[in-house]
Queue: 2 jobs
Job 1
Amino acid sequence: MSEHAIEVHQITKRYGAIQALNGVSFNVRRGEIFALLGPNGAGKTTTLSIIEGIRQADGGSVQVLGMDMDTHARQIKRRIGVQLQTTSLLPDLPVADQMWLFGRLYGVAMKRSHVLALLELFGLREQAHRLPDHLSGGQRQRLALAIALVNDPEILVLDEPTSGLDPQSRRMLWDIIRKLRDEGRTIVLTTHYMEEAATLAHRVGIIEAGKLLALGTPGELIKQLHQSTAITLPDIFPVEVLAALPAIVEIKRESGRVVLYTYDEPLSYQALMELARERGLALNDVRIQPPTLEDVFLQLTGYRLTNDMTPTVASS
Ligand code: ATP
């Protein structure tokens, strides 16, 4: 059995004049949470819909659970759970019946006890008799995710599962997604949220304009791109002395403070402390800021993915 649940090789997709995917390749390991991170229009939804068998790639190949999408789309679809868009919920059907009906669509006759157990898992047990319109945004998102589980899938494909939610509802969904992973499921999701990718996913693929720019664990990406750690200290040493410290790549002065960027933080920090001792200066208020996935994203794309999900051009 392959260690990979999903293997995507050089897929391309064009919509008229728009080249939505331009040779995207990645593998998703069994039992991992894999995030595709990128701005609007990067090609995330297109990639997912090709994995789900909803759209066909123009070129390249997709294998899911060892089966080829070109020849086994039906078998694959049965073993994947796809999170519904909340807009596809049926307005006149109470939550529990909604679950049951979607089960039927997958050919599963769910017992009432099974429906209620799933609703319980998603914190929706109390809402079993309510109509979807009477649920909060977070509850609707959770219902859409619960419906993805009606066929007990090995792989879950989630397109922006926490989009538009407040931080608390988002955290609740993260806990549920982790729980589903702990049950042995493989999870592929897309997100605009840097924090979501960094805290939830084992590995992250950064996608922009139909191309995968980087792939790895958040830690690997930071290392691969030689991101530097920032050490901020009071402006009490001459710049040329600081520049002579080991592993320093850049120095900036900002409102009475100095920021040292280093590729080896322990080495630079130790040398800085020795320098202070030699000069008999007390070095208080030193701050160390390790690099983040946000820094990696900025380096790769020239954009910052801000919290309101609008990519903005970086000022420096
Ligand atoms: P978002 O985060 O906004 O959902 P995305 O990363 O999921 O974006 P896609 O939805 O895959 O990106 O779109 C990739 C590109 O293809 C975009 O330029 C989009 O406008 C275009 N596109 C997507 N679907 C279609 C379609 N059915 N017809 C024409 N163009 C499309």
Job 2
Amino acid sequence: MTRPASAKTLLRVLAGEAVDPPPIWLMRQAGRYLPEYRALRARTPSFLDFCYAPKIAAEATLQPIRRYGFDAAILFSDILVVPDALGQVVRFEAGEGPRLDPILDRAGFERLKPQIDLERLSPVFETIGRILETLPEETALIGFCGAPFTVASYMVAGRGTPDQGPARLMAYRDPELFAALIDRLVEASIAYLHRQIDAGVEVVQIFDTWAGALAPGEYERWCLEPLRRIAAAVSPRVPVIGFPKGIGARLAGFGEAAGVAGVGLDSGVDSFWAAKALPRGQTTQGNLDPLALVAGGPALEAGARRILDAFRGRPHIFNLGHGVTPQTPPEHVAALVELVRREGR
Ligand code: CP3
């Protein structure tokens, strides 16, 4: 007999229930810190080809679940498949990160497809189906996309930048053009997430990794409002976790303003402050420093305990404040999962 979906702890917590111990999963839980990932990855030189190979992407998704028994799996893919499916040239150079043909002006924007090519993303939906064939029944499956501002920051600069300067400058100099790009991404994200949900994901997370770079006023327009539109479209179907990294005190009102079920906290946020400042029933997620996980030992234990103490009695999902880094010793992840399950009650 299959258990009702509500038995999955991640879904219970996103519905507002405080669960002890809290469910745990980690952003970038599939990746280069795992030897089995590196072995799988070595067989496919192009990272995008790797993301678009359903068997391989499903296997990468499941590797950390087998090893650690996390409460959630996150679809293995990347946020930059959306610009790829909008017709922008996207490449991943080994050791250098993503490279895109930058959108410099209106003509560059006009070269994008008017609508996202969901056919190109069909391998992603097939990956979801394959994951569900073997995912343990207590494990939730999370789908995701990048938030419009974060994705736009790569589309405009053509690469990662220290301060997202090119995108922020376009937003100041030509707000109409930037708004058109953000609108295109809002529509593309909604269509893409609906198809992920059709294929079986039970939760979606929207990564706004660079929201913290936005000045007041710009933040409302380019982070909050686009997220609100996406959440309004998909949250009648599945709970949405918003992750507006780096926005500091603006987190206090973020969940309500964006209309998301869960608020992701980055490592710079004091957990005790968040537990006080965010509304009582607001589900939170986070926020251990990924470097505490690299260090292990007392740093890991103190960091994890602080988070457990701060959020005890509140609906919370244990996670890092950003992704697992490649130099993380796999045994530290096992120690963290064990500690959270032992002491998180
Ligand atoms: O969390 C997971 O386990 C799911 C998979 C996932 C990846 N990227 C796999 C990946 C998710 C959710 C992402 C999101 C993502 N991708 C974000 C937002 C969150 C964040 O981490 O800030 C961003 C900004 C990207 C864009 C991106 N993809 C960059 C900048 C890079 C290169 C940097 C790096 O770490 O090498 C990637 C590549 C990438 N995406 C890798 C993985 C495992 C490494 C590529 C490889 O294996 O060679």
